[in-house]
């Protein structure tokens, strides 16, 4: 818990020291939120003429069905930090990014073969992951304070989890770790600029 507090204070200190009102954007990833029913929010801060720092996260605390017979869920939190280099000027056009991410999850009855392998829908996975990667994106202005952004990233994630039989999610079948290579982010975000 102390590490989370120190990390949060460090990030807030960086934001305060580098930010001015016209250099800050608040956004939500509509693709992530719509596909996983996860409320999410990011703040992006201008660092230089062509660079920004994006801090984002999402939290999904709900079981999708929430009964003892059907324990379908995608409960998780996800945090991400990304440094972005803009090819023209910040908050406009194409950008390249480098990101790190961390997550904790409790997932049941979800078909996720790329992450947990074939037959993942028959199990519950409870654990955490961390990783990073590179990304590309494009930001299109809609008005003075609004824009829309599309991005995609690929990279690596290390997953650690306990695996359970999923009928009533009771019997633990083992503890596993996995190296994942592939998409690490995708987004279509609605952005509001604070001026």
Automatic annotation (TrEMBL):
Keyword Signal in annotation: yes
Keyword hit for Transferase: no
Domain of life: Bacteria
Family matches, as SUPFAM superfamilies: Autotransporter (SSF103515)
Keywords, comma-separated and alphabetical: Signal
Signal peptide: 1-21
Protein name (database record): DUF3575 domain-containing protein
Protein's organism: Bacteroides faecium
């Amino acid at each position: 818990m102390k590490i989370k507090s120190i990390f949060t204070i460090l990030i807030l200190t960086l934001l305060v020291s580098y930010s001015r009102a016209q250099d800050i954007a608040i956004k939500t990833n509509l693709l992530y939120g719509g596909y996983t029913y996860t409320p999410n929010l990011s703040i992006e801060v201008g660092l230089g003429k062509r660079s920004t720092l994006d801090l984002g996260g999402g939290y999904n605390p709900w079981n999708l069905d929430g009964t003892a017979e059907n324990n379908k869920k995608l409960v998780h939190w996800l945090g991400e930090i990304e440094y972005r280099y803009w090819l023209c000027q910040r908050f406009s056009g194409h950008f390249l990014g480098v990101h790190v991410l961390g997550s904790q999850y409790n997932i049941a009855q979800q078909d996720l073969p790329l992450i947990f392998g074939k037959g993942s829908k028959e199990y519950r996975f409870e654990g955490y992951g961390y990783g990073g990667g590179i990304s590309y994106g494009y930001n299109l202005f809609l008005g003075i304070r609004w824009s829309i952004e599309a991005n995609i990233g690929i990279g690596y994630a290390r997953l650690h989890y306990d695996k359970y039989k999923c009928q009533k999610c009771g019997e633990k079948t083992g503890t596993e770790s996995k190296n994942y290579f592939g998409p690490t982010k995708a987004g279509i975000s609605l952005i509001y600029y604070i001026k």
